Amino acid sequence: MRRYLLGRLWQSAVTLLLATIVVFLGVRALPGDPALALAGEDRDPESLRAIREQYGLDDSLLVQFWQFVSHAVRGDLGTSIRTGESVTGMLKSALPVTLELSFLAILIAGVIGIGAGVVAAVQRGRPAEWAANALALLGLSVPNFWLGLMAILYLSVAMGLFPASGFVPFFSDPVANLHHLVLPAFILGTGLAAVIMRQTRSSMLDALSADYIRTAEAKGLKPSAVIGRHALRNSLIVVVTIVGLQLGALISGAVVTERIFALPGFGKLTVDSVFQRDYPVIQAVVLVTATAYIVINLLVDLLYSVIDPRIRVRGEA
Amino acid sequence: MFRRTPSPLNRSSWRRTAPPAALLALVLAATACSPVESNDEQTGGDQTSSTQDVFGDAADAAQVKPGGTLTVALSADPDKLDPTLSRSLYSRYVFHTMCEKLYDLGPDAKIVPQLATALPTVAADGLSLTIPLREGVKFADGGTLDSAAVKGSIERGLTLAGSGRKSELGPISGVETPDPKTVVIKLSKPFAPLTAALADRAGMVLSPAAVSKLGANFSTAPTCVGPFKFSSRVAQNSIKVVKDPLYYDAAKVHLDAIEYRIITDSSIRSANLRSGDAQIADSLSTQDAPELQKDDSMSVLQSQSLGYQGLTINVGNAEGIGNPVKQLDTPIAKDPRVRQALEASIDRESLVKTIFNGLNTVACSPISPKSEFTSEAAQACPAHDPAKAKELLGQAGVTTPYKVEMITSNNPDSLRLAQALQAMVKEGGFELVIKPVEYASLLDQQDRGDFELLQLGWSGRVDPDANIFNFVGTGGSQNVAGYNSPDVDKLLTDARQAKDQAERIKLYGDVVTKLQQDDPLIYMYRQRNLTGVSKKVLGVQTYPDGVIRTAFAGFAK
């Protein structure tokens, strides 16, 4: 186990380094440099030169890369070229927003998806299944940005139910925080809800035709107990795996949702920084995302071997 | 974006009908959504009134209640909140509430004193300006404003690495402080545009204590003189300022705080305005403005900008800006007749009517008719004449259709404009190929000279020099056309050094006449600054410089 862990850690470090190099070069391959984007209308050669000098943009790529990596390992991600603020600070304020948004989206998607999936499986062949299927298809095919715009126009503008933009931190006012986040989280969760619904439905159908269900029914259990305690529980294992796999899609969906609802999250920070060619911020954002992915993957792999003894890690078998 | 919304439902009955209604609304919207509404509905009726300037009125203290937080939906994130380093228009919106300047602009685009008490006294040789300062003025950190603070701010503008103010301040040779309430600026050459520069960021006075404490990080906690002071900033998302009790005119300030919320999409901005999440939204799209004008709870402030939108033709920018120009070897670069033909094939009138709902106005020169420097020559406009265009192309010996590639920004408004142009110039014998590019790439391409034709504009400044010199003067920092004309250079330099306004007006008129012959830049239209304001707020004003003034606004009683 220890050897495996060390091996995985080594692999992760290499992956992280490669990701850093790719991002570093990729960002610099974009047309237009930060000095131009920053200077915008007011640009003149002298101030462009000064900006480039100030941020070391006129150094060679190797020097720039070394600067970035050597500072990053010490926990200093630099300052934003555009706003002059510390990148670490920017990440600290953006991350919790996206995490909360994603958590709520998963929660909402879970409730809707599992509920609709169970109904569809139990009511097989009846209008309820048909409706649930149609809803899932809609959830998968309607893009987030459109749904977001419609939600703002109808639920915020016309009916005044939810705020159209803005954010209140959870700890300063939990009610206002949820009021601001419910709508974006719902929009973000629609795609995931559809996936969960489909998965739940098919797993439930499998489970419902299994022998243990027949046994449970034969024992005289109430239908709700049969469905809830036996069929659903067994179906959820696959559903949870699917949710895990969909996390990436959720994060990319958050980019769009955050922009539409003006939420100060990670996704909005990423996109806006790319448009402004704010190199330090883009690099930091990708570095953090890559680290998160690597850590999650590592944890999942390790957890598998803990949860399911049948999954043995190499070196121990 | 479609703009029709259903009439609001009764709130109490809503609870029962909400879920099905919302679903129905979504389904209906899916089928009813139409991207562009027909023009006849929008341009009909109040066409003339829709192009009049509406600057807004100052708040009547009796009608305003004290307190409250105003939310302003901004179309772009301001850059650094440091008057010396800032470069975006949007930072000026925020600065106006927390960093006052020596001079300000009145609604008539005339310069008026702000932290100064009078316009500068210029010495007979034009080489020194004496500025009297307001007394009893405190910075947000409690320090006192005096001539030394002004001197420090101007010198910072001249010397700080990356300063955006250096070129605006011109040939300043020194700043003197004979007494605490008098500043004397010494120049090595006369420089007429200086007063206008002091009515912008170059004239903002920074707290010396904050500057010495924060240095180049001043933007993290900007401290100046203003009705409001900096409170917090969430990168890319919002900026908050709160009322400053030390402000010399604090009695006129009604609001407790102002939050600037960055919402880049124009339809979402106007949706926020209508939902009440924001009370002000800047840079409305000409597609959204007519709908808001019809809304009884909203008013749309509008002013003609001092800038322009136009087509720049690459005539000599072969090796990128900053390098010597080199005549390009294409008919449109070499022969002014081809460029004149392009200009003649553009129907500016119908362009502004059909694409911008008649809200923007026709422009044929860099000098706005609202400017003090306008003249008959400056407003002369070459007629739309496709037949003449074809004739000119024939004279130039090019075969039609003449193919030309245009790069343009990839936002919806620019694309609509590009498509209209494409259809329009076809009649004059041109085949326009549109290449949409994202903004940062567009800047890059234009500076490298990697384009044939490009569509971009300039937001405009009060002094005409700032709208012309850099763009068409030889070696100008934004002369992406690679244009060079000794005649134009001489006229512009003379205008810069002229002491008499009448003389400057005449010289700028001559510049326009010459530019219309050479056509390195075809001016097309002037944008309107369209600002949506909820009627719940009083005292919001926009001036021709495009800055929305919110500092003395308040919520209606």
Q: Under the CATH scheme, which class of the largest domain in chain A?
A: Mainly Alpha
Radius of gyration of chain A: 24 Å
The helix content of chain A is: over 70%
Which architecture of the largest domain in chain B would the CATH scheme give at its second level? Roll
Poorly predicted runs of 5 or more residues of chain B: 1-49
The end-to-end span of chain B amounts to: 34 Å
Class by alpha and beta content of chain A: mainly alpha
The count of helical stretches of chain A stands at 13
Largest interface comes to: A-B, 59 and 71 residues
The CATH H-level homologous superfamily of the largest domain in chain B: Dipeptide-binding Protein, Domain 3
The CATH topology label of the largest domain in chain A is MetI-like fold
The coarse overall form of chain A would be globular
Intertermini distance of chain A: 10 Å
Provide the residue-averaged pLDDT of chain B.
87
Low-confidence stretches of chain A: none
From the 3D structure, determine the CATH topology of the largest domain in chain B.
Dipeptide-binding Protein, domain 3
State the CATH architecture of the largest domain in chain A: Orthogonal Bundle
Oligomer state equals: heterodimer
Number of strands of chain B: 24
Membrane topology (chain A): Multi-pass membrane protein
Family (chain A): Belongs to the binding-protein-dependent transport system permease family.
GO cellular component, one term (chain A): plasma membrane
Main location (chain A): membrane
